[in-house]
Amino acid sequence: MRRSVCGLTAAASVGSINHPFGSNRRQMKRLTKFVPGAVSVLFILWFAETPAAPQTPGARPAASTPRRTVAGKPDLNGIWQVLNTAAWDIQDHSGQLGVPPGQGVVEGNEIPYQPWALAKKAENFAKRITADPTEANCFLPGIPRATYLPFPFQITHTPDNVAISYEFAHALRTIPLEGGKHIEGLPSWMGESRGRWEGNTLVVDVGNFNDETWFDRAGNFHSDQLHVVERYTLTDPEHILYEATIEDPKVFTRPWKMSMPLYRLVDNHPKLLEYECVYYLQEERFKDAPFKK
Questions:
Q1: Does 136 lie in the same domain as 222?
Q2: Within a domain: 59
Q3: Both 43 and 145 in a single domain?
Q4: What's the domain range around 6?
Q5: In sequence order, what DSSP letters do the residues of the chain get, joined into one string?
Q6: What is the structure's pLDDT at 212?
Q7: Co-location of 192 and 86 in the same domain
Q8: 54: cis peptide before it, omega within 30°?
Q9: How many domains does the chain have?
Q10: CB 3.0 to 4.6 Å from 218: which of 39, 89, 159, 288, for a disulfide?
């Protein structure tokens, strides 16, 4: 009779049924050397095709028990920074001179612009070198852009207030934690922030923006009707999950969201340094102006 093992055919005579190797010992010796290796290969192929446990795209990481302050809230105190390329473009983008390639931070990688606004975004992109308010004129970057600039920032909080200090241009936010409504008629670059705790998450409602900031260097923009809700969730002692939900009925057809991890700086003696954007810009534009020493 004939048997097939992994594509090899071994012959055994009917007369040798009581001897599994039959009379052809040389052939069966080769087979015994081959079979273990073949079985190993089959096992690897079987294992490779075994489906992995499904993962939900964009699933939030499970939060660990956070380190807490004396007041019992998650301890966000420290210096933090992103490790992404959202400052250049919050959507997926390839690299080019001066622009590192990167994956986007926008949920679904889609920004729901109204038709006129999509054309405006393309116009902004075309003249981005001179038109970006933050890069070209050192205007304050706005929210959420301040979070993902390639500069660190420091969070300091008490039971009643949160302060966020940014290395870029000394930008500063003070966030009262009693919630409440925004003060009408006081638009600004960084908006007005009101905070509250929802379990282990710091939620910051930001309104009262002007229309003089962009979301990134790629020309993504908003109007003075921008409304941002930020969420800071300490997932472990060294990481914060940052989420920002964006609304602007003048520019977008619906709300949309971005998210990214923030990393605690754990260098020896980490601290914010000074990035004097306005001074550097003046030096570049005016060269030997009187204010230069």
A1: yes
A2: no
A3: no
A4: 2-49
A5: -EEEETTEEEE--GGGTTSTT-S-HHHHHHHHHHHHHHHHHHHHHHHHHSPPPP--TTPPPPP----B-TTSSB---EEEE--SSTTT-SS-B--BTTB--B---BGGG---B-HHHHHHHHHHHHTHHHH-HHHHH-----TTHHHHSSS-EEEEE-SSEEEEEESBTT-EEEEESS--PPPTT--BSS-EEEEEEETTEEEEEEE-B-S--BSSTT--B--TT-EEEEEEEEEETTEEEEEEEEE-TTTBSS-EEEEEEEEE--SSS-----B-HHHHHHHHHHSS-TT--
A6: 96
A7: yes
A8: no
A9: 2
A10: 89
pLDDT at residue 47, as a whole number: 34
* Dist. CA 175–CA 71, nearest whole Å: 17
Cβ neighbourhood burial of 80 (10 Å; 0-12, 13-18, 19+): buried
pLDDT tens digits, one per residue of 113-149: 999 999 999 999 999 999 999 999 999 999 999 999 9
- Cα 208 → chain centroid: 25
* Contact present, 240 and 146 (Cβ < 8 Å): no
In a domain, 62, yes or no: no
- Spatial neighbors of 258 by CB under 8 A, at least 6 apart, are 86, 90, 105, 106, 107, 144, 243, 244, 246
Whether 204 maps to a domain, the answer reads yes
Residues in the chain predicted with pLDDT less than 50, given as ranges, are 1-58
Tell me which amino acid residue 51 is: P
